[in-house]
Amino acid sequence: MTPCNPKSTFLVSAFSGPPQTNLSRSYSSTTAISMASDEVQKAKEAAASNAGGDGAPPTIFDKILSGDIPANKIHDDDLCIAFRDVNPQAPVHFLVIPKNRDGLTQLSKAREDQKELLGHMMYVAQMLGKEECPGGFRVVVNDGSDGAQSVYHLHIVSAWCAEVF
Q1: 155 is known as an active-site residue
Q2: Banded pLDDT at 159 (limits 50, 70, 90)
């Protein structure tokens, strides 16, 4: 395993473009800022079309849960699933989502009765993280348009910046 280069950044995004084959590509800080700006713009567009909450059309994650869109699942239990991102931004990149959205479109909209589910999702993210990258991993939750959230179905993104063989 190669440690992260502090001068490069891997951006984490879910379903924001066509699949890339170069999973170990590193980005300069200028490129990273530009890409982050693009991601924020995409998130604002998603928020505008989604109204940022339930009652909106099904998200891509709902379509994965229903089986309408296939996914490379790496975990599946009563509360959540985890699957590999179709547009990985790091050598290992997966998402953990709740099976029942129940208004949990953003972390900032979580209710007290959802604490157990949120803790369970974090536990699954760390369990898979330790299995796939024992040297360390990153966990990200984007929230709202300014937080670069592009899919309004809460998801925990886990990714690593080191090569995994």
Answers
A1: yes
A2: confident
